[in-house]
Amino acid sequence: MKSDVLIKREGMRVLTKYLGIVEAERFITLILREPFDYTEWQRNLYGDMSVEELYKKIKNTEQCKNE
Fold first, then answer.
1. Domain count of the chain?
2. Of 25, 35, 46, 59, which has fewest CB within 10 angstroms of its CB?
3. How far apart, in whole angstroms, are the C-alpha atoms of residue 37 and residue 57?
């Protein structure tokens, strides 16, 4: 199991990589400002998407960023 410090460090690295530092900070502020139910957020984010569909979506997104 990863330590809390490592999870925070990796989380910030991922957020800043994909959003940039300003938008990553903004994301954190938005999450902290409102009551947040992570489970409900995930349900709304992925809907009824299967694991295979989600995998294809992620691969397409990665390909677009690498072009």
1. 1
2. 35
3. 24
Close Cβ partners of 15 (under 8 Å, ≥ 6 residues apart):
24, 27, 28
How far is the C-alpha of 57 from the C-alpha of 60, rounded, in Å?
Answer: 5
DSSP-H helix ranges across 1-67: 4-19, 21-33, 38-46, 51-66
Residues 6+ positions from 57 with CB-CB distance below 8 Å: 49
User: Which letter does DSSP use for residue 37 in this model?
Assistant: -
30-41 pLDDT per residue, tens? 888 888 787 888
Domain span at residue 44?
Answer: 4-66
**12 Cβ neighbours under 8 A, 6+ residues apart:** 24
